[in-house]
Specification:
- The protein is mostly helical.
- The protein has 2 domains: about 80 residues, Recoverin, domain 1, CATH 1.10.238; about 130 residues, Recoverin, domain 1, CATH 1.10.238.
- Helices cover about 65% and strands about 5% of the residues.
- Strands 1-2 form a two-stranded antiparallel sheet.
- It comes from Stylophora pistillata (Smooth cauliflower coral).
Length: about 230
């Protein structure tokens, strides 16, 4: 860390409460981003990048502030502190905070910093973008990055082969390139595989999120190729 912290995950809860209240200047039971960053840097010894990354990790609902429950839960989790202490991991977290704004930037990070080839990066991007929204949130990236199976999946050549094949098939029917297959695109796909039943029923069955479109993870699940 950038400085010295006088706290550890094992300190009594009352001490953590006292620390929290010290920075809760408006006494509303939450730390604003500014208040939280001050706490993380001044009392926990983090640098700017570590503090920014930690705030986004702790603010799980993305509300822009941290409750005491969120802070205490993170503080008690030794892995939470380990992640920001691990310089190599914190580098990627900070990188994601700065750069995960669109698909192009995400693919650059996956290839340039994580050493993936084009196929791996494309497959990984579609896997992480679970809602098919066309962008990856910090929470989506971190959830995948923290899950060892996620990295194993793209590093396992046999699995990656099938996922890459699925990417090719998915892109073939994602005519507008928006990262999802809509109702009309699904009809083309079903026709190609000689599916003769109701396409609306098929969409309802495949669309597990109920948003009227099929994301890549939903497509993989349909193929029964979803990594596990």
């Amino acid at each position: 860390m950038a400085g010295k912290s006088y706290f550890s995950a094992s300190v009594p809860k009352i001490v953590v409460q006292s620390l929290f209240k010290k920075y809760d200047t408006d006494e509303n039971g939450h730390l604003s981003k500014k208040e939280a960053l001050s706490l993380l840097k001044d009392d926990l010894g983090m640098d700017n990048k570590q503090a920014e990354a930690t705030f986004m990790l702790v603010d799980k609902d993305g509300g822009g502030s941290i409750s005491f429950e969120e802070f205490f839960s993170w503080f008690r989790d030794e892995k939470g502190l380990e992640w920001v202490d691990d310089k190599s991991r914190c580098y990627y977290i900070s990188k994601a905070v700065d750069e995960f704004k669109n698909k192009k930037e995400a693919l650059c990070l996956l290839k340039d910093d994580l050493g993936m080839d084009n196929k791996q990066a494309e497959a990984c991007y579609l896997l992480v973008d679970k809602d098919g929204g066309g962008s990856i949130s910090f929470e989506e990236f971190f959830s995948w990055f923290r899950d060892e199976k996620g990295l194993e999946c793209v590093n396992d050549k046999s699995r990656c082969y099938y996922i890459s094949k699925a990417v090719d098939e998915f892109k073939k029917y994602d005519k507008d390139g928006n990262g999802t297959i809509d109702k009309d695109e699904l009809k083309l796909l079903l026709k190609a595989v000689n599916y003769r039943h109701d396409s609306d029923a098929a969409l309802r069955a495949l669309d597990t999120t109920g948003d009227g479109k099929i994301s890549f993870p939903e497509f993989l699940a349909w193929l029964n190729w979803l990594p596990n």
